[in-house]
Design brief:
5-stranded mixed β-sheet; D-Maltodextrin-Binding Protein, domain 2; 6-stranded mixed β-sheet; 13 strands; SBP; globular; transport; 2 domains; 17 helices; alpha/beta
Length: 434
């Protein structure tokens, strides 16, 4: 996602919320003419093109135009510009929960759980577990998840084997014990290399703090509506674990060239998109031979048989209120047709390599042949029901920026204790939520 200029544009968008609400009932063409904006990614646009053409052959009275979301300078900004100009599509994909929170607060999108057949669609696509994290504090769901990328830890099993481990550590204390053995044999190696921990880039918090916090708290939201609802013990424990890794020289926060791939670190947080690059650049990295995959480490008091939550890089579909009710209904019929058939999700995965947001992805016979050819993707499929999407709070950028500036960075720099850093974050964030 291109980020240049997004903060100014988003601020202007929030100020213009009343304008968007005022034009919320505007129609964008005849009832049978629908527009769907796909992510500005050719494989995703190709999928929606194919789905629209197939649907129109069965429904010749319907015309669905598929276009890429304009990036000016970001896809979020392109959507905001269209809303402000009264030219929004009927629906679009590529929406994550934080941006969805802004659209919801501006009354720009439709609560999809109120559309007819909502429960039937959730059951048909087997999303009963996955959909829970997409509900807002008002009880409604505004985004229909399209794909979910659970974040998992890759561990260098070849190095672990040298240290006497047949499987990766599960708990914080087990990680630290592994670190002691690692330093004894390889003083220059680290458990984890994560330079962005000392950077205040808001979106980097998805791939460090939130992943560990979701695992420690069993996915409890940091913020619900206008209240901080975080699990304080899990949050402080996450900061303390980062501090211990850093204090014991097990955490590398300096720049390094592919530290996990080159064996400088033994663990790395990854998504399924990592493998294509590895196959080309690091062909010796083989799943089950030189690396394995596991959920994020958890506090020692988490039972071994409890499923571990993790952060989800996830996006979905929204419908816009600028479309007429007739257009909304016809678009909804199209979306139900697309997402009720697992064969369509199979086409999606083949074209995009993005795992569809289905709880049964690991067990449905439709996908078995696909995963048999790419077994490294199976752990990601297994963890979709445990994947927690981003914050729904509309001021997510400021909230996540504060996690770095108020808590993580000063804790790692020994300027604050974990408890102090967490309290500083809460004091900074409370005025940001309505």
């Amino acid at each position: 996602m291109k980020l240049r200029g997004i903060f100014l544009i988003m601020a202007l968008f929030l100020l213009g919320g009343s304008v968007l609400a005022a034009c919320g009932e505007a129609s964008t063409g005849s009832a049978n003419e629908l527009t769907f904006w796909a992510a500005p990614n050719p494989p995703q646009q190709a999928f929606w093109d194919e789905m629209a053409k197939e649907y129109m052959t069965q429904h010749p009275d319907i015309k669905i135009t598929v276009k890429a979301i304009p990036e000016s300078p970001t896809s979020e900004a392109g959507i905001q510009s269209a809303l402000a100009g009264g030219t929004a599509p009927t629906a679009s994909e590529n929406i994550f929960t934080g941006f969805g929170g802004q659209l919801k607060d501006s009354d720009a999108i439709v609560p999809l759980d109120q559309m007819p057949g909502w429960n039937d669609l959730i059951k048909a696509r087997h999303m009963e577990s996955s959909i829970a994290g997409w509900k807002w504090s008002d009880g409604h769901t505004y985004i229909l998840p399209m794909y979910t990328n659970p974040m998992l830890f890759a561990w260098r099993s070849d190095i672990l084997k040298e240290l006497g481990y047949s499987q990766p550590p599960r708990t914080y204390s087990e990680v630290l014990k592994l670190g002691e053995k690692l330093k004894q044999k390889y003083p220059d190696k680290f458990i984890w290399a994560r330079q962005p921990l000392l950077q205040d880039t808001w979106y980097e918090r998805w791939f460090d703090f939130f992943t560990f916090y979701d695992a420690a708290s069993n996915g409890k939201p940091l913020i619900t509506g206008d209240k901080i609802t975080a699990d304080d013990q899990a949050a402080i424990g996450t900061l303390n674990f980062f501090k211990e890794l850093n204090d014991k020289k097990l955490l590398l926060t300096q720049s390094a060239n592919d530290p996990f791939e080159n064996g400088l670190s033994v663990a790395n947080l990854i998504g399924p998109w990592s493998f294509a690059g590895w196959q080309e650049k690091y062909p010796d990295l083989k799943y089950g031979k030189t690396f394995v995959l596991a959920p994020p480490p958890v506090p020692d008091n988490v039972p071994a048989d409890q499923p571990v939550k993790t952060f989800a890089d996830a996006k979905g579909i929204v419908m816009y209120k600028q479309a007429s009710q007739e257009q909304q209904q016809k678009m909804w019929d199209f979306l139900k047709w697309v997402l009720s058939d697992p064969a369509h999700d199979m086409k999606w995965m083949q074209k995009t390599s993005l795992p569809p947001a289905r709880d049964d992805l690991n067990s449905n016979a439709e996908f078995k042949a696909y995963f048999a050819k790419q077994p490294e993707l199976q752990p990601f499929a297994e963890n979709i029901p445990n994947a927690v999407p981003p914050l729904t709070a509309s001021k997510y950028t400021d909230i996540q920026l504060s996690l770095g500036t108020q808590a993580i960075i000063p804790v790692l720099k020994h300027e604050k204790q974990p408890e102090q850093g967490w309290e500083s974050w809460k004091k900074a964030v409370q005025p940001m939520i309505p």
